[in-house]
Structures are given as C-alpha cells and as structure tokens.
C-alpha cells in the first residue's frame, strides 16, 4: 500500500509540474508585451482618427476603438505615442462596417441570435522601412440573444469587439506574427 501511495504522490507531482509548465507556455503565448520592433530604429508611433464610414453608425464606437488601440500600443511597446505624421510608425484607417445579421433561427422562424460585426481597415505605415507597410482589414463579432434590444447590449458588445480588433491589429503590425 505504501508503494502505491508513493507512486500516487509522484504522479500528482508530475501532473502539477506539467500543468504549471503548460500554463506558463499558454500565458507567454498570449502575452502581448513582445512586440517585434527594433527600438534602436523605431522610437515613435502615431495613431490617427478612425472615422466611421459604415452604413450604420454608433458614434461612441470610434472613441472606444481609438482608445483601446492607443492603450494597447502604449502599454505593450516602448514607442512614444505622438500626434505627428512624421512618426517612425503610423496607424491610420477607418471603421468600414458595423452590421447586424440574424444567426440562429428558432421554431417560430424568427432569429434567436443576432450577430454584431465590426470591420476596421488599417493602414500600417513604416516610415523607416516602407516595404513593411501594409493595408488590411480586420473583422470581429459577437452574437447576442435576439430577445435583447441592441441598445441594451451595444456598449458591452462594442467594447468586447474592440478588444478583439486591437489584439488582431497589434499582432499583425507590431507583433509581426
């Protein structure tokens, strides 16, 4: 019985070590402080306004998105955020889509879920190495129960979607993943 107890203790210890190692690996994979920039070359970044060019307009969206993107860059790089087109790096663009689409249809033939989708077009301009500049769109969405009024869930959904968008944009530009 003592032999079984020792084996059990060793097994529990090994599982604990493997779990901790896995947790550290996952944490480091999602940690966004490893921007792949040469800070001897890049010192400044500017982030311009992202006007809403979508057919549907939710005015607080622009400020929410811009703040989240600026905070992400400021907190996860050593770049100084400035308001100048002459910065080493520049992000500019527009919010091109803000759409609601029905998703799941219930027995009564009405949508039981609605999807809010936001698309942002981003121009990443590298003034030090123009060949690294790019222009692409990023899309994220959230579903919500159709029994809810959009006005009741809009702020929270937009905040969550903007979190996803800023992560996608950061990884595609500064993270160089």
Anisotropy-based shape = elongated
Query: How many DSSP H or I helices?
Result: 3
Q: Which blocks of ≥5 consecutive residues have pLDDT under 50?
A: 3-34
* Main pleated sheet: 5 strands, mixed
SSE ordering: HEHEEEEH
Report the mean per-residue pLDDT as an integer. 83
Q: Kindly report how far apart the N and C termini lie.
A: 52 Å
Radius of gyration: 22 Å
Task: Tell me which oligomeric state these chains represent.
Answer: single chain
- Strand residue percentage: 25-35%
Q: Structural class, judged by helices and strands?
A: alpha/beta
Task: Determine the fraction of residues in helical runs and give it as a percent range.
Answer: 25-40%
Compute the number of strand runs: 5
Give, in spatial order, the strands making up the sheet with the most strands.
2-1-3-4-5
Concise account of the structure shown:
It contains three helices and five strands. With 177 residues, the chain is of the alpha/beta class.
Question: Would you kindly provide a written description of the structure presented here, covering whatever features stand out?
Answer:
The chain is α/β, with parallel strands linked by helices. Helix content is 40%, strand content 26%. The chain is built from three helices and five strands, in the order αβαββββα. It has helices spanning 2-30, 60-76, 150-173; strands spanning 44-47, 80-81, 89-102, 113-126, 134-145. A five-stranded mixed β-sheet has the order 2-1-3-4-5, covered by helices on one side. Helix 2 runs parallel beside helix 3 (150-173). The N and C termini lie far apart (52 Å). Residues 3-34 have low confidence and may be disordered.
């Amino acid at each position: 019985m003592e032999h079984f107890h020792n084996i059990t203790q060793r097994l529990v210890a090994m599982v604990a070590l493997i779990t901790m190692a896995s947790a550290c690996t996952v944490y480091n994979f999602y940690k966004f402080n490893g921007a792949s920039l040469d800070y001897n070359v890049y010192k400044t970044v500017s982030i311009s306004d992202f006007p809403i060019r979508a057919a549907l307009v939710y005015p607080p969206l622009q400020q929410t998105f811009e703040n989240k993107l600026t905070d992400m860059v400021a907190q996860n790089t050593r770049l100084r955020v400035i308001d100048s087109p002459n910065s080493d790096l520049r992000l500019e663009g527009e919010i091109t889509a803000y759409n609601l689409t029905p998703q799941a249809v219930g027995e009564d033939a009405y949508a039981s879920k609605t999807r809010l989708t936001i698309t942002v077009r981003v121009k990443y301009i590298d003034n030090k190495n123009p060949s690294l500049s790019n222009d692409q769109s990023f899309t994220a969405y959230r579903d919500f129960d159709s029994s809810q009024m959009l006005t009741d869930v809009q702020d929270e959904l937009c905040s969550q979607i903007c979190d996803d968008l800023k992560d996608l944009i950061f990884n595609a530009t500064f993270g160089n993943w």
